[in-house]
From TrEMBL, chain A:
Main location: membrane
Membrane spanning stretches: 12-38
Gene: kdpC
Official protein name in the record: Potassium-transporting ATPase KdpC subunit
Keyword Iron applies: no
Organism: Anaerovibrio slackiae
One Pfam assignment: KdpC
Function (record text): Part of the high-affinity ATP-driven potassium transport (or Kdp) system, which catalyzes the hydrolysis of ATP coupled with the electrogenic transport of potassium into the cytoplasm. This subunit acts as a catalytic chaperone that increases the ATP-binding affinity of the ATP-hydrolyzing subunit KdpB by the formation of a transient KdpB/KdpC/ATP ternary complex.
Xref: InterPro entries: KdpC
Length: 204, 576
């Protein structure tokens, strides 16, 4: 009996000690360190525009763009029910479709997405559409698209913003990141940054 | 070609990092002085003094098991209480309420069992206090429990005529303090530099450039950037093969995994410790070849699975191709392939490699949505979990699971050639066999019984996000994930119902603790035996032939158990 009591006492003691050390000390120390070393990244990589005081989002979180003078990103499944701010107004949040790519529902959705993209890009005629432009991402908040998907939209953007295609390409090039060490990950274009530059909210 | 380079890069880096770590872990677990000792040893001693633990005490297997089970039960009770009461506790900026009991039960079980199945969505349902004092702590100690039990088993092989197998408290403390915490600090800083959030602020809101109207007619003009102490928790959820994301969409969420660099770090973290432990094992039993043999068997299965997933995802489906209207070919400008549910920055190769890593290890974090994988890609992820999570598997538990399969293998091989089965110089007798079978069959039986019962209930069909065969796959995946203590999901499956929360919780408990009981019992029995001399008649267990036999047995048990169920799910969907 005595043995069992000791084990219980040690279990509770160890658990509480670990809770304080790992839940408290570890988490707080890591917060302190990252806040000191990487303050911008630790707070959501916010992008400021205009005179530098207006927050226009996070570099890493997608926003929906459907206007013809904006670069479009991945298909977003927008939800306004997930989060609300203190005044009760809905906050934008995206999520994955979780549809099987071998299913009928998915096939129908793809056909609709293809038709929508085709209609908005008459210049591209029958050129095949890069797959990431007509699919939704894993997070539903993917901030980027492939270089091919950005290039596909260049004629439309030039037409709608009154710029030359070269100027549009220059902006896209400024918002492009490559692979890590040329090996890992994929090259990609940040949609929000391109649009802020197109709107002249962010300096090139 | 580019994809090949990526796959090879991940594997080579894993190997290069795991080997030295394996030696280090073995030194730590044997109580030797290591380079971190000057910093950590004082804290360790203080902890023992505080809790009244005698670090020189050697425990019998029954006492060792008792400590492990009681400690885990206390962890469950504390986490359950935290989740129920979070609405009345501080550090809750979004004013989230406490969880209902079925969800709190499921979540508490899920984190104590190192599963991290998530029937909730982190940023929408959990307060900061639940995340840090509840989930983060269990992420560490559940992985530590796995490593402790593994070392108990290793001592069973090494010791002779001994009735003790070590001390649970020191095993736990050493694995957490010397291995998990230092690695977690490094990973936190690496991913923190990339843009994984780490703060205690309220969520940031801002005005969108374009107002959107949802399909239900709600106009949304504001966006939100969530916050929280994410990086520190993500570091350990990767390293400890836990996998429970800070955010709902796990490491697909850009604030949880923003760049190819953060992805590289997080992905290597998944397999780092499970792979290293193979080498620790070799060191500990005094035969590096034995460690390498087990590693090679696991590695072969890993490469095979990764190849199949990568090929299948790059090929895509007819629904994706839309008769040639959509470009699926990979090139310098785009990854192509099945990009549904995948992030642009990861493309196909980094997503497929992660899917294989996370289901081979019982990690369960995802950087793409497995529900949207092609039928064959999804099949492999499911099969990895159904094999019992022994292709590296969870921290500690993957290797002790594989060692149980090794015991099974020497027994079957022994029967074929008419020799007495022995492994690592220890005679394998009916008692060890019974326990090894219990450990190996706990997962398949729990999965099949759970999903069998669930598929008979009409209400469960309402949880499915897809129709037909893929709907059944969602259900089978849920039970496989919980039965493998993995935690990943075909995430369209709405798992937050009373029946699913409770039944999946029970499956997780059985799949975690039955093998722990069996393994510690085997350790106790083996430690008491003498060491047999190696003779002509001994079946060598450290060569290619044994690795091949081991792979065959693992595949045989998995395939025989799951072929019928898989043919109704992913295979049926593929053939449609």
């Amino acid at each position: 009996m005595e043995g069992k009591k000791t084990i219980l006492r040690q279990s509770v003691g160890m658990l509480l000690a670990f809770t304080i050390l790992l839940g408290g000390v570890y988490t707080l120390a890591m917060t302190g360190l990252t806040q000191m070393l990487f303050p911008r990244q630790a707070n959501g990589s916010l992008i400021y525009a205009g005179d530098g005081s207006r927050i226009c989002g996070s570099e890493y979180l997608a926003q929906p763009f459907e206007a013809k003078n904006h670069l479009w990103g991945r298909v977003m499944n927008v939800s306004g029910d997930a989060l609300r701010d203190k005044d009760g107004s809905p906050l934008l949040y995206g999520g994955p479709s979780n549809l099987s790519p071998a299913g009928e529902d998915f096939g129908k959705m793809m056909a609709e997405n293809v038709a929508k993209i085709r209609a908005a890009h008459p210049e591209m005629k029958d050129a095949p559409i890069p797959v990431d432009l007509v699919t939704s991402s894993g997070s539903g908040l993917d901030p980027e698209i492939s270089l091919a998907a950005a290039e596909y939209q260049v004629p439309r953007l030039a037409r709608e913003t009154g710029r030359s295609q070269a100027e549009v390409r220059e902006i896209i090039g400024k918002c492009t990141s490559g692979r890590l060490l040329g090996i890992f990950g994929e090259p990609r274009v940040n949609v929000l940054k391109v649009n802020l530059m197109l709107d002249e909210q962010l300096s090139k | 070609m580019q994809a090949m380079l990526q796959y090879a890069g991940y594997l080579i880096l894993l190997l290069v990092l795991a080997y030295p770590l394996g030696k280090y872990i073995d030194n730590v677990m044997r109580g030797r002085w290591v380079w971190l000792s000057p910093v950590i040893r004082p804290v360790e001693r203080f902890l023992y003094r505080l809790t009244g633990v005698n670090e020189r005490e050697e425990m019998t297997w029954k006492k060792y098991l008792g400590c492990a089970l009681l400690f885990n039960f206390c962890g469950f009770a504390l986490l359950f209480a935290l989740l129920m009461l979070q609405g009345r506790l501080p550090l809750n900026p979004m004013e989230l309420s406490g969880l209902e009991w079925p969800l709190a039960f499921n979540t508490a079980v899920s984190f104590v069992t190192n599963t991290n199945w998530q029937a909730y969505s982190g940023e929408l349902q959990l307060s900061y206090i639940s995340q840090m004092f509840g989930l983060t702590v269990q992420n560490f100690v559940s992985a530590g429990t796995g490593m402790a039990v593994l070392y108990a088993l290793i001592r069973g092989f090494v010791r002779t005529y001994d009735d003790t197998i070590g001390n649970f408290w020191t095993d736990l403390t050493k694995s957490v303090g010397y291995v998990l915490v230092p690695l977690a600090v490094v990973v936190t800083l690496l991913i923190g530099s990339q843009g994984v959030v780490q703060n205690f602020e309220d969520y940031t809101t801002y005005n969108l450039s374009e107002t959107v109207v949802t399909e239900y007619g709600t106009a949304i003009s504001k966006g939100v950037v969530p916050g929280g102490p994410a990086a520190s928790q993500i570091a350990i959820k990767q390293l400890g093969t836990n996998g429970g994301g800070f955010f709902g969409t796990n490491s697909a969420h850009p604030l949880e995994n923003p760049t190819p660099f953060s992805n590289l770090v997080e992905m290597l973290s998944i397999l780092l410790i499970p792979a290293a432990l193979c080498f620790s094992f070799g060191n500990a039993v005094g035969s590096r070849r034995q460690g390498v043999t087990i590693f090679a068997a696991m590695f072969a299965l890993l490469v095979l699975g990764m190849g199949i997933i990568g090929f299948s995802e790059q090929a895509g489906t007819a629904q994706l191709a839309q008769n040639g209207a959509v470009l699926l070919e990979a090139g310098d400008m785009q990854p192509g392939g099945n990009m549904e549910g995948k992030e642009t920055r990861f493309g196909i190769a980094s997503s497929a490699a992660w899917a294989e890593f996370t289901t081979a290890a019982s990690n369960g974090s995802v950087n793409s949505m497995h529900d949207s994988y092609t039928p064959i890609g999804g099949l492999i992820t499911m099969l990895n979990m159904q094999l019992g999570e022994v292709v590296f598997g969870g921290v500690g538990c993957g290797l002790y699971g594989m060692l149980c399969f090794a015991i099974l293998t020497v027994f079957i091989a022994g029967l074929m050639v008419g020799r007495t089965p022995e492994f690592m110089g220890k005679k394998i007798e009916p008692y060890e066999m019974k326990m090894a079978v219990l450990a190996c069959l706990a997962t398949p039986v729990a999965i099949l019984a759970g999903s069998g019962i669930a598929s008979m209930l009409p209400e469960v069909a309402e949880s499915m996000n897809n129709h037909g065969a893929h709907g059944l796959s969602e259900l089978l995946y849920a039970y496989s994930s919980c039965g493998g203590n993995n935690g990943s999901a075909f995430a369209g499956f709405g798992a937050d119902t009373v029946f699913l929360n409770v039944s999946l919780g029970i499956v997780m408990l059985l799949a975690r603790f039955l093998p722990i009981v069996a393994v510690v019992a085997i350790a106790g029995s083996l430690a008491g035996k003498k060491k047999l001399a190696v003779t002509e008649g001994t079946l060598p267990t450290d060569n290619v032939m044994f690795a091949g036999l081991l792979i065959a047995i693992v595949l045989l048990v998995g395939a025989l158990s799951f072929f019928p169920a898989l043919s109704l799910g992913p295979i049926a969907e593929f053939l449609q």
